[in-house]
Amino acid sequence: MALNVSAGLAPTGGGSWETHDAQYGKGGWRAVADIAARDAIATLRRSAGMAVYVIATGATYLLGAGLGNGDWALASSGAITAGNGLTGTTALSVLADGSSIEVSASGIRRAALSGAVSAPAGSNVTTFASGDFGSLALTTTGASFTFGATAVAPSIYQADDATAAAVGDTLAIHAQNVTGAGATGGALTLTAGTSLGASGTRIGGAATLASGICATFAGQVFLKLGVTEILAASAVGDSPNGETRLATAGGSMRLSIGATQRMLLTASNCFFTVGTIGWVDSQATPIITQQAKAGAAVTGETMLMQAQGTNGATATGGLLSLAGGDDTGGGNGGGVAIRPGSGGTANGAGNLNTAAGVSRFKWDSTGLAFFAGATAAKQTVTGSRGGNAALQSLLTALATYGLITDSSS
C-alpha cells in the first residue's frame, strides 16, 4: 500500500544521517560493488532508464525497457578532443574495466583491458577485445578512419614491448569476411597518396612495404594469393642484405608494365616480350651461365640458345646471330670468340653441327676435323711440287690460312 506524504523527508533537527537507502528504492541512480550485485537488483526495484554505477569496473550502466540483465548497456560519456589531426569530438562508450582512450600527438591508444566490452549503438567504437591494445571495431556509420589534413606522419601501430627476448604480436589488417553461399570476401587495398591537382607538377606518393630491421636478422616480407606464396624477401645468414624470390604453386606468373606483359614465367620456361635484354653500360664482363653442379663424376647440363621456331607449311625458322660489339664513333668493332670449356684432365671440344646434330666442323686442343672426322694437328706438306704451278698455288693458299705447313720444294 502506498504511503502518501505532503512534504519532503528530512532528518530530525537537520541531522547528518540519511533519509533513504538507494538499494531499497525503485529505479533512479544507485551504486553497487560489482556486476553480480547489479544483476541481483530485484525486478520490483527496476525501471527503464535507471542508472547503476559499478565500483569494480568504474562504469555506469543504463537499464533498457526489457528490465532484464541482458538489457544493461554502458552509459555513453566523454569525448575525444581534437588531436593528432582529429577534428571535432567523437563520443565514446565508458569501458567496463575503467580503462581509457588516450589521444595524443603520437596516436590513439587505450590502456589494458580484461574481457570484451561492447559499446552502445551509434557510438563510433563498437567493441574492445581482450588484451592490451586489442582490436578496435569501427561502426558502419563511418566508412573511413581518417587523420586530419594537418597531421604529420600519422601512424597505426602497437606500443613497444620492452621485455627481454619478447616476440612482438602480429598486427592484422583484414578486409571483410563473408560466410554466405556464393559470397565474395572483401578486397584489401593499400594505396599511396594520389596527386590530382589541376596544374603544375603532380607526383603520386610512393608505397613502401618493409619488414622490421635488426642488427642480426632483418624480418621477412611475404606476398600471398590465398595460402600460395608469390613473393618473399628474407635475409641470408647474418647479412643485412636479403634475397627475394618469386614463387607460385602452379600455373604461370606474368610481369607487366601497365597493361603490357613483359615476362611470362611457367613451370619450365621464362618468356620475354621485350625486344632487348641487356645490361647497363657500367657492368663489367656480364655473363649468362648456369650454376655449377657439385659432385664427383657428374655431367653438366646442356645449355641451348635457339632462335625462334616456326610451324607453318612454308615458314622459315629464325636466324641465330652472334655478333661482337659495333663501334659507331670511328673506332674498332668487337670480335666473337667461341671456346670449349676447360678441364683439369681434358678440355672440351667445339662443334658446328647440322640440324640433325651431325658434326661438320670440330675443334679441340688437338686440332681440327671436318665431316665428323677425328681431330688432327696442323699438317705439314713435304715433297716436290715438280714445277706444278697450280699445286704450288694451292699449298701457298692453305699455308696462308694456317691450315698446313708448306715444306714442299
Structural class: mainly beta
Give the helix proportion (percent range): under 10%
What characterizes the major β-sheet?
4 strands, mixed
Task: Tell me, briefly, the overall form.
Answer: rod-shaped
Major sheet: order of its strands?
1-2-3-4
Low-confidence stretches: 77-99, 102-142
How many E-type strands? 22
- Please compute the radius of gyration using only Cα atoms: 42 Å
- What are the secondary-structure elements, in order, as H or E? EHEEEEEEEEEEEEEEEEEEEEHE
Distance between the termini: 153 Å
* Beta-strand percentage range: 15-25%
In round numbers, the mean pLDDT is: 76
- Count every helix, treating DSSP H or I runs of 4 or more residues as helices: 2
What does this entry look like structurally?
- With 409 residues, this protein is mostly beta strands.
- Among the domains are: 220-268, no CATH class; 350-409, no CATH class.
- Helix content is 4%, strand content 22%.
- The strands form eight sheets. The chain has a four-stranded mixed sheet with strand order 1-2-3-4. A three-stranded antiparallel sheet has the order 9-10-11, with no helix packed on it. Strands 12-13-14 form a three-stranded antiparallel sheet, with no helix packed on it.
- Strand 12 (221-225) and strand 13 form a beta hairpin.
